[in-house]
């Protein structure tokens, strides 16, 4: 059993090292730098976790000696959450407070041995992976219906969802243990699960592809994807969508969903998702609809004939449910509040 465990850990460490080696050249990637840096940090942290969670380390080393490994392993929970956000949130940016949060969690885990048998500290240590696993799952489930990128929906959802399930199972196994350490069988199951998840990611990263690691031309600036070969049914859906969202002002429907829009167009949800993503170049349904709404709002705010119409009336009329989300979306898109935009546009005209 010990030899099998050691062999699996060696294979896992080698695979994680290959993932790091594949990602390091993309450290400054124009579009994916934050995901690359988080992924490298997570892989390195998992190497430490693989070593520190081995039966020999947990049963033969004293707690103070294990402390650095415990801290970095606990910090993996934060890195997993950040990885999930970087995968699923278009435009995600790594912030200083993210690094500070990881450092605080790692420091907490690394100094827990100094506190002796203070049981609330150990309870909190078990709670941290659960909390960040649930936050990671929220990143998967929350945008699932509005995500238009099919490969991301299939592969990355499986990997991140599996990662959250792994973290939860691992915490349950440790909680059920009398001293918080894993038995030989549990440790073997732990490394086997992690090896499977890592293999899924490594298979994606290490497979040779002519169009680069990310499935896109890496030397060129990002651009909307070219429409695929014409499909008669897709073309009909695209035409009907343009009519509904243009003349029909379909975007103005409050609470508009992908499923609801597909029903109005009389087409399958997967086909509409493909049309919006591959033909129109949008990656997120909510962003697509809000873009339509904001374009109409900007046109009306710049219209001298509507200078007396309250901003709230325009926000509601284009489909926003309240003024708060409208103001935030407008500021993110233009850098100005709706009122500032109106004043500037009318002054320029």
Automatic annotation (TrEMBL):
The chain crosses the membrane at residues 6-24, 36-57, 69-88, 100-118, 124-146, 158-175, 187-207. Keywords: DNA-binding, Membrane, Transcription, Transcription regulation, Transmembrane, Transmembrane helix. SUPFAM superfamilies: Homeodomain-like (SSF46689). InterPro entries: Homeodomain-like_sf, HTH_AraC, HTH_AraC-typ_CS. Residues 242-344 form the HTH araC/xylS-type domain. PANTHER family: ARAC-FAMILY TRANSCRIPTIONAL REGULATOR. This is AraC family transcriptional regulator.
């Amino acid at each position: 059993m010990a030899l099998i465990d050691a062999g699996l850990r060696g294979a896992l460490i080698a695979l994680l090292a290959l993932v790091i080696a594949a990602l390091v050249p993309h450290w400054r990637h124009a579009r994916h730098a934050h995901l690359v840096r988080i992924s490298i940090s997570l892989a390195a942290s998992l190497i430490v976790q693989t070593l520190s969670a081995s039966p020999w380390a947990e049963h033969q080393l004293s707690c103070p000696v294990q402390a650095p490994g415990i801290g970095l392993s606990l910090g993996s929970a934060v890195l997993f959450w950040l990885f999930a956000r970087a995968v699923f949130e278009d435009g995600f940016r790594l912030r200083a407070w993210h690094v500070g949060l990881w450092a605080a969690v790692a420091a907490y885990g690394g100094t827990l041995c100094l506190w002796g048998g203070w049981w609330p500290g150990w309870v909190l240590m078990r709670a941290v992976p659960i909390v960040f696993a649930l936050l990671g799952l929220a990143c998967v489930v929350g945008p699932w219906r509005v995500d238009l990128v099919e490969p991301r929906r299939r592969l990355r959802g499986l990997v991140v969802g599996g990662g959250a399930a792994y973290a939860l199972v691992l915490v349950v196994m440790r909680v059920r243990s009398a001293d918080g350490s894993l038995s030989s069988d549990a440790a073997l199951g732990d490394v086997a699960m992690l090896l499977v998840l890592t293999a899924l990611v490594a298979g994606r990263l290490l497979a040779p592809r002519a169009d680069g690691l990310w499935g896109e031309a890496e030397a060129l600036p990002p651009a909307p994807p070219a429409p695929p070969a014409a499909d008669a049914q897709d073309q009909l859906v695209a035409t009907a969508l343009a009519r509904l969202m243009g003349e029909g002002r379909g975007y103005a429907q409050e609470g508009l969903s992908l499923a609801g829009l597909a029903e109005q167009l009389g087409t399958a949800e997967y086909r509409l998702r493909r049309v919006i993503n591959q033909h129109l170049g949008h990656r997120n349904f909510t962003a697509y609809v809000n873009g339509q709404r904001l374009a109409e709002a900007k046109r009306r705010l710049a219209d001298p004939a509507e200078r007396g119409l309250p901003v709230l009336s325009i926000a509601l009329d284009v489909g926003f449910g309240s003024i708060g989300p409208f103001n935030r979306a407008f500021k993110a898109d233009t850098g100005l509040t709706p009122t500032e935009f109106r004043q500037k546009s009318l002054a320029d005209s």
